[in-house]
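Priority: medium. Attachment 1 of 2:
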């Protein structure tokens, strides 16, 4: 079995590569540009073929008739997208179209596009896959644009596409600019923890291992041309999440500091995952247990 993972040196990609190597006998190719968010050392010692290249620049020489292509590669930090939207257009849209062209020419088994719950925008009830798409940031707009090309290539060229939309991930290997990783690292270093606005914004969190297993399960059991939500079922406000992490580490709430709210900041994300559950997938990890595992991983990294 031949598998390609784009963005495999990034946070979710790294965890997914490690999951695949544990779960299957496969020939695994990892493609990553190695921006600030991707670290080659995340993959040290793993039996993979590694290609350092921008997905926009990939050619048929870099590719193969893979059984599965899992497309994680993306510029993903919302704050950065506000100040550098063109970068997100190039990487997330043009890069995806280039991959779709390669998949069409070489005939891949399945192309799995890893999307985001931010596609739905801020919601007041759980989002289903056929609900209105309403992105708020340049990041989410670029991911939604890429999704539309995936659907077009499926309908026009019969590229076997499956789309997943995951809720907010956390876990080992996450870049320190992200909310939970920054909160853990700052707490361990006894540094101030910045929280946007009042901290009442609500997110649905999923442990990265659960997301990896969900993506893999849906890639093998889902229907081509369909979209599937993958959520952790852990809705919690940002301020409550910070309090939870502080409590698990045993640190003072004095570390909390409130900062000006982010532009276009969505208030709530919430996924209805009935399609994935109907297929037979559900998340395994309890939120507190997953946070403890994550905290312990960062403690080892900071030693």
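Attachment 2 of 2:
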């Amino acid at each position: 079995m031949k598998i390609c993972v784009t963005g495999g040196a990034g946070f979710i990609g790294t965890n997914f590569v490690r999951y695949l190597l544990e779960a299957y006998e496969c020939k695994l190719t990892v493609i990553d540009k190695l921006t600030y968010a991707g670290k080659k050392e995340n993959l040290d010692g793993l039996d993979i073929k590694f290609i350092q290249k921008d997905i926009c620049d990939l050619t048929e020489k870099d590719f193969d008739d893979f059984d599965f292509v899992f497309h994680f590669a993306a510029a993903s930090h919302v704050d950065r997208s506000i100040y550098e939207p063109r970068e997100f257009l190039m990487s997330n849209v043009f890069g995806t179209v280039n991959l779709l062209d390669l998949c069409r020419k070489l005939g891949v088994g399945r192309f799995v596009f890893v999307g985001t719950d931010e596609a739905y925008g801020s919601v007041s009830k759980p989002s289903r896959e056929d609900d209105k798409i309403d992105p708020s940031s340049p990041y989410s707009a670029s991911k939604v644009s890429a999704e539309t090309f995936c659907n077009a290539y499926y309908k026009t060229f019969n590229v076997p596409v499956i789309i997943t939309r995951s809720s907010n991930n956390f876990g080992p290997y996450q870049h320190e600019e992200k909310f939970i990783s920054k909160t853990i690292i700052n707490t361990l270093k006894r540094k101030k923890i910045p929280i946007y606005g009042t901290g009442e914004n609500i997110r649905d969190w999923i442990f990265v291992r659960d997301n990896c297993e969900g993506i893999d399960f849906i890639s093998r059991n889902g229907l081509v041309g369909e979209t599937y939500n993958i959520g952790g079922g852990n809705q919690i406000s940002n301020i409550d999440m910070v309090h939870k992490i502080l409590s698990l580490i045993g640190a003072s709430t004095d570390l909390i500091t409130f900062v000006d709210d982010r532009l276009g900041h969505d208030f709530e994300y919430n996924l209805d995952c009935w399609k994935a559950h109907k297929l037979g997938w559900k998340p395994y990890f309890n939120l507190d247990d997953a946070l403890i595992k994550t905290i312990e991983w960062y403690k080892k990294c900071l030693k």
